[in-house]
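Standup notes
- DV: blocked on the single-chain target, sequence here:
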Amino acid sequence: MKHILLVEDDFDFGSILKQYLELHQYQVIWAKDGKEALKNFSEKQFDICVLDVMLPKLDGFTLAEKIVEINPEVPFVFLTAKKMKQDKIRGLKLGADDYIEKPFEADILVLRLQNILKRSQRVKITNDRIVPIGVYKFDAINHCLIYNGQRQKLTEKETILIQYLYDHKNTLIKREELLKDIWGNDDFFSGRSMDVFISRLRKYFKRDNTIKIESVRGVGLTFSLE
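- DV (later): unblocked, structure below
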C-alpha cells in the first residue's frame, strides 16, 4: 500500500480526494495547511505528495522546497486553479512530476499518481559501483555526483536521467524516447520538465568542458564524452 501526503485546504474537495484515493488502496494522510503538511512529512514516510498551490500558513511552492530539502527522492504533484505560465515554470524548476489544473476528475489524479509511481518502480538504478564521468564520479546508489571530493546531492530523477544519458553516451537520443522512458509520456508538461532537468545537469557538469549535453533541434539530444 502506497502512502500519500495530500495537502488541500478546501475541506469538501480534500475529503472527496482522500476517500477516492483510499478506495484505490492508497493510505492517505490529509493536511489542511502547509505547516501541518510539513510536520507530517518530517515525521512520516511517504511515497508521493499531492500539494495544492494556494495554501494557508505555507504555500505549496514553499512547502515543496522544504520537502525537497528533507527528502529529494519523494515525487510530488501540484494541484492548482491558477493557469499562470510562471507558476507552472516555478513548479517545474522545483522538480514537480506533474501539474494538474482544477477542476479535474478524481480518476485523472489517480491515473497520474499510478503512472508516476510505476515509473519510479520500473526504472531501477543498476550501477553497483562509482562510475567515472570525465572529472566527476557518479555514485548512482547514493544519488550523488562527486567532484574533487565534494558531493553534489542528486534527486532520484536526476540520478536516473544521468544514468540514462551515460548508458546512451555519444549517440543521438530521440526526444520522444527519452520522455517516454523517464517521464512516461511526451506531452507538453513532460517536455518542459525534461528541459528543466537537462539545464540542471548542464550546470552540474560545467566544470568539465569535455562533457557536453547538446540539443539537436526537432530530434533530441546527445550526451558526449571525449
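- Follow-up: The two ends are 45 Å apart (CA to CA).
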